[in-house]
Amino acid sequence: METLWQGFLEALHLLLSGDPEVWAIAWRSLRISGLATLISVALGIPLGTYLALRRPPGQRMWLSAVYTGMALPPVVVGLVVALLFWRSGPLGFLGWMYTPRAMVLAQTVLALPVVAGLTVSALQQLDPHLRWQLLGLGASHGQMVWLLWREARLFLLAAVMAGFGVAISEVGASLMVGGNLRRYTRVLTTAVVLETRRGDFARAIALGLILLGLAFFVNAVLTFVQQRDVEA
Q: Which pTM was predicted?
């Protein structure tokens, strides 16, 4: 308990003192995870919509693959990305290994199935006759999809929050493909691991609390938007 209290005080000190390295790590975490979330949303919501509305051949198999992807082990994703971008790998010529780009890619792979799977669930919970009513009223296919998204916006916002939660809390794949390089690929999760290995538990707890605070702030903003629609 005393260590936890020391960690809390250390977190306050790091934040109030304006420690440039801590703020840089926090900003890097937000930038990498935020970009991964945006990409996963840009790809996951259309993918989930396609699987929910179009019902392609082998839909159950594709849905099973998406739902399985929601439980992908981060270390497995890190291994696959590392093999792809290793110097001798098929994409090694890009030079992405141990860069923020590789971390964004790994986090995107982890968050994408979560966003897509929750999008499928959100759209399948709507009245199945709604889409046909919209088309019967003269809506184009694009307008119909947009109106369905609006109808399911509360659940879609929950999908965005879940995707961001997966990205910001990821550590295994980030370590494997990012390398935890100071002032380059070190983020809050990997910094916590580093300080724990060093035995500096107070600083590790402090960084962990900052990570929780950052995740809470982003989700609080999204929750405010979500609940404002509920109250309206």
A: 0.87
